[in-house]
Structure formats: structure tokens, C-alpha cells
Request: fold
Amino acid sequence: MAEFTIKRILVPTDLSPAALVGLRYARLFAERFDAALTVFYVDPIIYPVEALGVEAPIYIANTPEHLSNIEDEVRSYASEVLHGIRYSVFAVGGQPVPIIIREAQQRAADLIVMATHGLRGWRRAILGSVTRRAARRRLSCAERQPPR
Reply:
């Protein structure tokens, strides 16, 4: 039987205090398996809502400068937890769940580490759970792919 190894760890974050828990676990796995660690942020695409009668400037274009600023923010956020180990950071624009799955596949991630906010009841129904949806989609992808 082949030895269990983890070489590439992907850590999507929303920059929240709850996500720091996932980052700490990712560090433990990275150190234990000497794995490459990548932390990233998906900047959600938010469409203008003037058609709904709401006047709010909520649309932000994902320019290279904007994404570079977000990457700096992610580095600052992760630096305390990941101090002393090598890791990479990137930011992309899009819808979080499909982007997380795409990046995991393209980067051949052996492990995705995500924290949850632990929402229940109506809050979860309204706000949803990116972690739960990504896990469901990733599991269904894993079931269709032959082992490496």
C-alpha cells in the first residue's frame, strides 16, 4: 500500500477570524508533510443592483492593481500564523465555490483546508456556506477522477 502524502495544500480564506483556525491547521499539515502551502482569496463578483431600485456603489472591478492590493492584505492577514514557513499568496475575482474547485484542480491540490463560520438555522439558509458547497463539489469531482 502506498504511503499517504500531501504535497500541495490550498487554503481559501475570507480574511475572517474564523478562517484563521483553518490556516493554523493548514500550517500543521504543511509542516508535518513538508508540503507547499498556498493561501488565496476569491474577490466575489458583485453585480450593480440599480435595476432593483437600490442605489449602492457595490461593484468593484477586479483590476490587476485591485487584486495586488488584496494579495498584500492576504499576506498581512496570514503572516502571524504562517511566520517562519514558506507559503504563496494569490487573489482572483469570481464566485468563490467554482473558483476554489478550479484552483484545486489546476494546482493539483492534495488537500483543501477551509474553516467554517458555524452558522446554523436561518443564517445558514440566507448566507449559505461556501465550505459546505465547496466540499460537496470537490467530493463529487474526486469521485469522477481516477487516483493519481
Q: What stands out?
A: The chain has one domain: 8-144. The chain is about 45% helix and 15% strand.
